[in-house]
Amino acid sequence: MMVGVMVLSFTLLSTAFMLLSYRYIISEKRDAMARNASYIATFTASYYQQYDSIQDKIYSNYVASIARISDSYVIVTTPGGEIIYATDGDHLYDYKNTCLPKAVVDQVLHDGDYTGMTNLDGIYPERRYMAALPVSAMTLSGRTVVEGLVLVSADASSLAEMWSAMATIFFFSAVVVLIISVIASTITSAHQARPLNEMAEAARKFGRGEFDVRVTGYEGRCDEISTLAESFNTMASSLAKVESQRSDFIANVSHELKTPMTTISGFAEGILDGTIPPERERESLQIIVSETRRLSRLVRRMLDLSRLNALAEDTVTAQEQFDLTEVVSQVLISLETKITGRKLDVDVQMPDGKLMVWGDPDSITQVCYNLVDNAAKFAPEGSTITVQISKKDGKAYTTVQNLGATIPPDELPLLFDRFHKADYSRSMDREGVGLGLYIVKTILNKLKENINVTSEDGVTRFTFTLTLA
């Protein structure tokens, strides 16, 4: 396409150049011939007034000099068009008893000049560019009379050679520039296409499951390709991370499903084949019910994940005013059994009265539930959970704090990732699949609010914000 555009551009440019240069050369030549004809006509008129004849050496030398300098042919005729003098500067030509075409003579006498291209009805062997003027002289009585005609002509071949030389120079210049442009564009295209081809090959490898492929070697380029390569590698890292999370999630789900299903199958078969005595059947059925509920919780978490993925596609979250203290209180009441069962104390620090904020009360209830549930799950028995609400700069800050194992600093940024579960918690959190904190982060992001986590000296603290109403 680039070569086609350049060829078309040079074609249009060369056509315009040739037409304009040809017209300019013709115009300049005609103007030069008209000036020379004017000089000769003026000189001839003066010569007629002084000598009544132009058949001498002085006149011949003057006219021959003009013809030689201007590389033209000069013809002087009588008023009737009969040729009396003809020269090209080097030679005198004998055209006795030869007359100019009547049309040319009439136009000069009637219009005062003539310009055109003609061979004068065979006087010249080829067509020539010609300018003609009358030789006007003033009589003693003050009357102007025509003493003759002056014609100055130029061979068209000289003009064609001049134009051809200019066109040749332009053509070769255009060819050189075109070749340089093609080479430069080819190198540039290859320079641009190589990383794109590498990215295409990397994308094909991604399709085959090779997520460790990266596009390298373009970090130093300060252009769009460098930005594209960086973005491509970022995308590749994200895909690899998602694939890793997917594999971990499948492993987690498989692990969570295998234990209860094995337990259910084992006790059910034991009841059916009589291995379990009748007095233990009730106990076995209770275990089957417990494991069935575990499976139900796992399916419910999966449905929550599906709902959040659909929510993430929506760009608008409806908000309303609600009392944050009431939401937190209801969450603590709903988790009272679990908190009491682990012999935990709850230190609640909330403002007196209502604290109105903007948000979705159902979603914030789920946020608070997940955070308090996590705190109760990982806090040592007999320790204290702290729930604190404070106000600052138009925001309500809700903090959920518990004692327990310190989370490593490099683990903190991963807590809100989907399917992520810290290794130390796997045996403790048999019900989780790594979705609780991801749900919290997603809900707060939809509300354009923030959440952060710190863990130091065995104290883990989650704090999220809401806008005061």
Automatic annotation (TrEMBL):
Main localisation: membrane
A Pfam family reported for this protein in Swiss-Prot or TrEMBL: HATPase_c
Annotated ranges, domain HAMP: 190-244
GO biological process, one term: osmosensory signaling via phosphorelay pathway
Gene3D superfamilies on file: 1.10.287.130, 6.10.340.10, Histidine kinase-like ATPase, C-terminal domain (3.30.565.10)
Subcellular location: Membrane
EC number annotated for this UniProt entry: 2.7.13.3
Any one cellular-component term (Gene Ontology): membrane
GO molecular function: ATP binding; phosphorelay response regulator activity; phosphorelay sensor kinase activity; protein kinase activator activity
Keyword Transferase: yes
Domain of life: Bacteria
Keywords for the protein's UniProt record, in alphabetical order: ATP-binding, Kinase, Membrane, Nucleotide-binding, Phosphoprotein, Transferase, Transmembrane, Transmembrane helix, Two-component regulatory system
Catalytic activity: ATP + protein L-histidine = ADP + protein N-phospho-L-histidine
Residue ranges constituting the Histidine kinase domain according to the UniProt record: 252-469
Transmembrane portions of the chain: 6-25, 163-184
Protein name: histidine kinase
Organism, scientific name: Flintibacter faecis
